[in-house]
Structure prediction request, 242 residues.
Amino acid sequence: MAMTKTDEEIDVMRRGGKILSDALRVAVEMVAPGVKLSELNEAAEDYMRAQGATPSFLGYKTTKHDPPFPSAVCISVNDEIVHGCGNRPIPLRKGDVVGLDIGCWYEGFCTDMAVTVGVGEVSDEARRLMNVTKEACLRAVAGIRVGGTVADVGRIVEEVVHPHGYGIIRSLVGHGVGHEVHEDPRIPNFYESKNERIFFVENMCVAIEPMIALGSYEVTYFLIMNPTPKAVTPMLKTKTSV
Prediction:
C-alpha cells in the first residue's frame, strides 16, 4: 500500500478529518462526572454516521485471528493507555483522566485522532502530565518536514518529556494512515537510530501519537470481557501508571 496520497485523496481526508474532529468534540463536551463511557461512544458514533462517515475502529482486527473491536471510540481511563472499550457502561468520576481515540472512514479514506481530557478538576500531577504530552505532540508535528526522518519525531518527544522524568511508552507508536487504519511508517515516540533512514516525503499522511506515563514506560497487556449485555468479546488493552 502506497504511503503517499494524491492531492485529491488528501482533500477527501481533510473532509473526513473535519467530520472526525467534530465527532470527537461532541464526545469531549459530554465529559462530566456520572456520564458513562458508552454514552460518549454512542454520541460520537451517531454523529459520524449522520455525516456520512463510518467508524474505522468498530469491528477492527489487527489480524484475522483477533476478536473484532466492539466500539467506535477507544476510551481509556487513568492507568489505561489505549484501546479501552468505549461501550463499557462505566460512569466517569471527578478527577479521572480520560483518553478518547477515534477514527473514521469517509469516501474510502481513513482518518485518526485522539485527545486526553480531565473530568472536572484533576490533580496538579495529572494536569502537568497532560500538558507535557500535548506540548510533545505539537512540537513533534511542527518538526515534521519533507526530507526529515521518522527519528526526528522520537528525538523531539524525548527532548520535551525526559526533563520531567516521565516514561515514554515504547510498545505503542504512531503510524501512517489513509488507505488503512494503520500504515507504514511506524513512528516511535523515542529515538531509534535506524529511523534516520526513513524519510518523510511529500503527501505522506501520518498520525503522531505521543503516549506518556508517570514513571515507567512498561505496559501490561491483558484481556477483559466486554461488559455490555449482548457481547462477550475479549478485548486487548494496555495498562500503565498514569
